[in-house]
Amino acid sequence: MLTEHEDSDLVFEALQAGASGYLSKDRISPREWVIAIRDVMRGGAVMTPNIARMVMRYFEEPMTQVIDLTRREREVLSRLSQGLMYKEIAETLAISLDTVRKHLGSIYRKLHVHSRTDAVRHYLRRPR
Q1: 2-58 and 62-125 share one CATH topology?
Q2: Which of 21, 75, 77, 96 could form an SS bridge with 46, CB 3.0 to 4.6 Å?
Q3: Whose CA is closest to 34, among 25, 79, 64, 93?
Q4: What tens digit of pLDDT does each residue of 112-124 get?
Q5: Where along the chain do its domains lie?
Q6: Could you give the CA distance from residue 81 to residue 1 in angstroms, rounded to a whole number?
Q7: How far apart are alpha carbons 47 and 76 in whole angstroms?
Q8: Global pTM?
Q9: Which residues have a Cβ under 8 Å from the Cβ of 91 and sit 6 or more positions away?
Q10: In CATH, which superfamily holds the domain spanning 2-58?
Q11: pLDDT 10s digits, 25-55
Q12: Fold of the 62-125 domain
């Protein structure tokens, strides 16, 4: 996959669909494109370093990261994983919508993710 998009959801969708790699075209030269295509033709898998870091972070042990969350952050993340909208989370926890957003910002930073989907993935992958 050669694209300008680096959204983690798009990266994982492409890889799950069978892409042999994921390259950010604004981060490599046309010469590097040719090298990457040759690598793929020989059976390799290619990724630009920023995409490789994203994939590696995804496979990090999530439990240690979830443990670093506060009790309230874990409650917010749990409800997020149940599919609740921010307003519903606020209502069920008896907190304001702004407080939910503040907790989510903290959760995203601590889990090194950039989307609701990635945060929930981390939560659902944790050891039981």
Answers
A1: no
A2: 21
A3: 25
A4: 888 888 888 877 7
A5: 2-58, 62-125
A6: 29
A7: 33
A8: 0.50
A9: none
A10: Response regulator (3.40.50.2300)
A11: 888 888 888 888 898 888 888 888 888 887 7
A12: Arc Repressor Mutant, subunit A (1.10.10)
